[in-house]
Amino acid sequence: MVRKPSTPHFYNNIVFRGRAPPLHVIQGCCGDVCSACSVLHQMSSQVEPEVLLEKMGRAGVITMNRPKVLNALTMNMIQQIYRQLKQWENDSETDIVIIRGAGDKAFCAGGDIRVITEAGKVGDPLAQEFFREEYILNNAIGTCRKPYIALIDGITMGGGVGVSVHGRFRVATEKTTFAMPETAIGLFPDVGGGYFLPRLRGKLGLFLAMTGFRLKGRDVQRAGIATHFVESKKIPDLEKELVDLKFPSAEDITKVLDTYQAKVRHQGSPHKPVYQYLFSVSKSCLLPQTLSKMSPTSLKITYKQQQAGASLSLQDVLVMEYRLTQACMKGCDFYEGVRAVLVDKDQNPVWNPSRLEEVSDQRVDQCFLSLGEKDLTL
């Protein structure tokens, strides 16, 4: 079995794994363990950190640890993951990095959108800082010199895609659900969506970007989003084998992943390529209905983003996408989309403009303009 992280005891940002903080750590100002300090200790030891950062053998293991909210990313999580990733990248005793989600439902369902929305409404700098820090992390993953392995065993959407898809290895399971559903909330498929989506086969990336269509299980690998497919029940054994590797090369990791993938039993006849299935007549007739629910402004922004991103580097795409986020923060569709989908959940957003033909090219072009000294720097 995989060495599961023991229950963390958290005190003053120090993690004491597997035991409570020693008495000298929780002493009061008088030097004694007073009743007030004991209460503080009991409270602090029950706090679960949002992200667990551990060394297991020669592997650095990141666990996004908010299972009750599907491991949604916060600013704190993004900053912690970035700092630790850079440290491990430069550590001669760390050979690989593994990222996973806590719980049995999600890898990561995205960023904490409600917090970002509230910040944007009142002009809180968090609306700028969150996207800036998130994209810096996405770039760090995409340029990491050490093998980065994302175990996307569950829901993987939005920001969760950003902390997985840019890594060298992405392992999907039958529990994986992938989607970039941002056009439904007045945004666009960000976190590098303008880079990896246009590079999928045919027009699959554009389809996923515009519709927010959900890919599940093996289709995530067939689409080219995951590099491997492994049965969920085999993930603990796979992780243990990866952790136990000594000085592994990327080729060594590939061999291990290929071995686990080969153990998956194939049932029935081979499926059609995923893009053939998605664009079958029965599916395509639903496209107008699906697109009619999306923000018209978001659809036009997304279309141009996908066209432009096809010929840009990941870094240039992230700079472009940061500009787009700031434009969306100044508009109204993002706030209305979040209200309709995530807050009131009436699924009835009132978009402004309400029709595609009312969204001018000039309006869209303005969203792509440089922010000058406020541009994202990578």
From TrEMBL:
Its function, per the record, reads: Hydrolyzes 3-hydroxyisobutyryl-CoA (HIBYL-CoA), a saline catabolite. Has high activity toward isobutyryl-CoA. Could be an isobutyryl-CoA dehydrogenase that functions in valine catabolism. Also hydrolyzes 3-hydroxypropanoyl-CoA.
Q: Which SUPFAM superfamilies match?
A: ClpP/crotonase (SSF52096)
| Subcellular location as annotated | Mitochondrion
Query: To which pathway does this protein belong?
Result: Amino-acid degradation; L-valine degradation
User: Which GO MF terms does the UniProt record name?
Assistant: 3-hydroxyisobutyryl-CoA hydrolase activity
Q: What Enzyme Commission number(s) appear in the record? A: 3.1.2.4
What Pfam families does this protein map onto? ECH_2
The family assignment reads: Belongs to the enoyl-CoA hydratase/isomerase family.
Gene Ontology CC terms, in alphabetical order: mitochondrion
Catalysed reactions, semicolon-separated: 3-hydroxy-2-methylpropanoyl-CoA + H2O = 3-hydroxy-2-methylpropanoate + CoA + H(+)
Return the NCBIfam families for the record.
PRK05617.1
Q: In its keyword annotation, does this UniProt entry include Ligase?
A: no
- What is the name of this protein? 3-hydroxyisobutyryl-CoA hydrolase
